[in-house]
């Protein structure tokens, strides 16, 4: 029997029981759809995170207090106090860090702000005027604080757009005074609305880092130091200069005992990319379990089909169909079922991913990009066909081995 005729025969067999065929491929459809959905949203999330990280600039270096976090157990490192003013002063000396263009200390925490009867929980960032340029923070109203305000420990604050709306509504916020940690802070600037970003500045208050240390957070150390190298070519050189300076400041001779960590934007982007990729693959693997369940369902249905079509098999064998012809027909039926299920799953997964991506962008102001994972689509088709072959082989062999005489006598 030529392959063309085998395909026609297999298609006719599936068309005879359309409802059963559709129910049979449901597991494959759900499995492939889930994989496409997870992979697509995972790529979208990865693009969003990397774009936001790169938005800080490719020459940016982050110096953190404590050991470099390697897992959830190291989350407490954020409270380490190893970065002090003495370290900042040493790093600011050009002879120590000639490859660095500028260095900005950063402290952060949480607090509540109150104005009249309104209260709002916000994130506190203590920084220098450099923050406006580092994080690309356009001012909608007012202005940013100055270096003189840093030295004077001025109680000035630049607030995010949502903070302004929650505390002052539609009124002009610049010049207003609200309480935070029992101190009065005067609003000198309001940030333009940014939407959800790597940091949610819409719900933040930015104040001079000296003010944050003394009046809000009650600390004498820095959580982070943000450094910009003179050029992209000098990033690694600048990072090494920072490490050597801090080791000398902390009397550290063994790099394995560093009580700080240095990460470049390239390193950070690579690590975040690896993390999101691993999570996406893990979720896709979990979703792929339904493909195995669907394959078992196809095998069961094919076994039922073989039993129901025993006389048909006997008649075809009596008319000259060989073992190979029967085996090919039933294998083709299984592969056509799973292939169809895979195709439907890919289309549904892509459509749902597109809908979700557009909904996120529309309703949350997050610049989420729809991404169609071509590799996942090809994998879905390939795995679907493989499942058809694997789980369809046993029913096909059972059908092909039937004796034509016994099959014709079957009631």
From TrEMBL:
Compartments, record wording: Cell membrane
Domain MacB-like periplasmic core intervals: 21-243
The keyword Transmembrane helix appears for this protein: yes
Spans through the membrane: 21-42, 281-306, 327-356, 368-394
Record membrane topology: Multi-pass membrane protein
Superkingdom of origin organism: Bacteria
InterPro entries in UniProt: ABC3_permease_C, MacB_PCD, Macrolide_Exporter_MacB
Any matching Pfam family: MacB_PCD
Boundaries of every ABC3 transporter permease C-terminal domain copy: 285-404
Main location: membrane
GO molecular function (one): transmembrane transporter activity
Name assigned to this protein: Multidrug ABC transporter substrate-binding protein
């Amino acid at each position: 029997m030529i392959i063309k005729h085998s395909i026609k025969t297999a298609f006719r067999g599936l068309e005879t029981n359309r409802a059963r065929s559709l129910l049979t491929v449901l597991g494959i459809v759900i499995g492939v759809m889930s994989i496409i959905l997870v992979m697509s949203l995972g790529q979208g999330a990865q693009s969003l995170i990397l774009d936001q990280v790169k938005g800080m600039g490719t020459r940016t270096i982050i110096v953190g207090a404590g050991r470099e976090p390697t897992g959830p157990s190291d989350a407490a490192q954020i409270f380490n106090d190893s970065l002090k003013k003495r370290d900042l002063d040493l790093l600011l000396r050009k002879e120590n860090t000639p490859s660095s263009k500028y260095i900005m200390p950063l402290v952060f925490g949480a607090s509540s702000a109150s104005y009249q009867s309104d209260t709002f929980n916000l994130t506190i960032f203590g920084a220098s005027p450099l923050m406006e340029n580092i994080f690309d923070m356009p001012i909608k109203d007012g202005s940013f604080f100055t270096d003189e305000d840093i030295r004077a420990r001025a109680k000035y604050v630049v607030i995010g757009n949502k903070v302004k709306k929650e505390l002052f509504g539609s009124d002009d916020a610049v010049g207003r005074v609200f309480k935070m940690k029992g101190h009065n802070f005067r609003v000198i600037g309001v940030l333009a609305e940014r939407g959800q970003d790597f940091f949610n500045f819409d719900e933040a208050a930015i104040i001079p880092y000296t003010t944050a240390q003394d009046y809000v957070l009650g600390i004498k150390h820095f959580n982070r130091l943000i450094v910009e190298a003179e050029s992209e070519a000098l990033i690694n050189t600048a990072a090494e200069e920072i490490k050597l300076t801090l080791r000398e400041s902390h009397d550290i001779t063994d790099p394995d005992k560093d009580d700080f960590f240095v990460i470049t934007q390239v390193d950070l982007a690579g690590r975040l990319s690896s993390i999101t990729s691993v999570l996406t693959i893990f979720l896709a693997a979990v979703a792929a379990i339904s493909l195995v369940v669907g394959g078992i369902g196809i095998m069961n249905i094919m076994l039922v089909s073989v039993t129901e079509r025993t006389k048909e098999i006997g008649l075809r064998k009596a008319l000259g169909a060989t073992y190979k012809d029967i085996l090919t027909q039933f294998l083709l039926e299984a592969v056509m079922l799973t292939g169809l299920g895979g195709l439907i799953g890919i289309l549904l997964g892509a459509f749902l991913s597109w809908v979700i991506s557009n909904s996120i962008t529309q309703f949350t102001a997050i610049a989420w990009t729809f991404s169609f994972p071509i590799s996942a689509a090809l994998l879905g088709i390939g795995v679907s066909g493989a499942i058809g072959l694997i789980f369809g082989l046993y029913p096909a062999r059972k059908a092909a081995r039937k004796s034509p005489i016994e099959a014709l006598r079957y009631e």
